[in-house]
Amino acid sequence: MKNLPVIKLGIVAVSRDCFPVSLSEKRKKQVLAECKKAKIGVLDVPVMVENENDAMKALDFIRENSINALVIYLGNFGPETPSTLLASKFAGPVVFLAAAEESKSSLATSRGDAYCGMLNASYNCGLRKLKVCIPEYPVGTPSEIAAMIGAFLPVARAALALSQLKIFAFGPRPQDFLACNAPIKPLYDLGVEIMENSELDLYDVYLSAKGDPAIPAIVSDMAKELGKGNRYPDLLPKLAQFEAGLLKFMEKNLGASKFGIFADKCWPSFEKYFGFVPCFVNSRLASRGIPVSCEVDIYGALSEYIGVCASGLPTTLLDINNTVPSDMSAAKKSKLGKYQPTDLFMGFHCGNTASECLCECSMKYQFIMHSLMEPGKAPDITRGTLEGRLRPGEATVFRLQSTADATLKAYVAQGEILDMDPSSFGSIGVFAIDQMSRFYRHVLIEHRFPHHAAIAFSHSGKALFEIFKLIGVAPDMIHFNRAKSDRYPTENPF
Description:
The protein is α/β, with parallel strands linked by helices. It has 2 domains: 9-162, Rossmann fold (3-Layer(aba) Sandwich); 165-480, no CATH class. It is 38% helix and 20% strand. The chain is built from 17 helices and 18 strands. It has helices spanning 21-37, 52-64, 80-89, 114-127, 142-162, 185-190, 199-208, 215-226, 236-253, 269-274, 279-286, 298-311, 326-331, 333-336, 367-373, 436-445, 461-470, and strands spanning 9-14, 43-44, 69-74, 94-99, 139-140, 165-170, 193-197, 259-264, 292-293, 315-322, 344-349, 362-365, 383-389, 393-402, 408-417, 427-432, 452-456, 478-480. The strands form 3 sheets. It has a 6-stranded antiparallel beta barrel with strand order 10-11-16-15-14-17. A 5-stranded parallel sheet has the order 2-1-3-4-5, sandwiched between helices. The longest helix has 21 residues, at 142-162.
């Protein structure tokens, strides 16, 4: 995927002057050796930070070597002022980690007390109002620290990406989708730029791409991707023209940003003027890490992109759409495993999901739009969806959203896409999430989240939760599905 930052990670060790500097040096070398074993690329910052002058020297090395994400490692207690000063001067994401004591024999003369030093470092981060990453348990052996560094990579990728991201929005939200409200002030707080355009601008993007020399190659690539599912080959040149126009527009208008995503109005007037639905094009851009959300869902597109950063895979945007009929779940009881029928729902959208995330796929027409726009006629302007059953396996359902008063909130729930035929149309699958019925009532409804959910095709909850914390979502505004024994605050205990 080219629409993501490349992480160049550095590690700097710190040492408090009343502790032997050799202890931090030795422990950092052990961490680097474990990172090498785990194939985690980390650049050693050779400056040992004991005072503020050291912090500035380390910062010079970091800048000279284009390090854009930083591990600050407490090999011993560590000096909290120089450590956090370095974090405040560094422009990218930072994680603080600390060394565990190795053995009983080392406690008398080589104790590092990093367990204690992490408390002071955290306190000083608070004084400086720093947003840093501190894992659930940030103290560990070299192999454990290496694992924490590996877990930090997707978090760092998301933080960097958002600081260099621009969202291209086209058109106002449809009247009946005001739930996808998008106050843009929180976007600027996140470092995200937004460029809002009209539907007429989008039409101009499409018309201006006519005759683009890239179109024949795009048509060929589309046909190859669809294979036997290429039911409307006559439509591909139009879709290719639209794709070429969007990509050229993005390249031309990124400006100071490095990465771009789209939130486009795709109905009801779109079909009458463009002569197709944009779903297949949206799916193709999603496969390259450029989500295109439907219905001008700005926070939906942003959520999808965060999921790409967290998982390194294409994501999609689906409606949390409908229940699974009891006769279907009963007939496929063996597929449910640990899940109950009330843990199931269907995730659906017209056809915007990348082909690699579907079992089989083919180009079809948008069934609902066809009944409204072309009743009794052969499909024409409603053609262009990519339909198929979602690939079974791990899934994470999540969303970052702004409330109407510009407060960020989010939810994350891990589950599965089951190997069950949804017996319906669109890009669709049967999802299973533990305690979904309670999560639906006491998170999605209670906290007024819209119907669109971003979907990652992996268990990415750990990274997403850390990303939401790091970018500033308040801890009590990050929601998740609770175990049966863990009651929601508003849940009726009787």
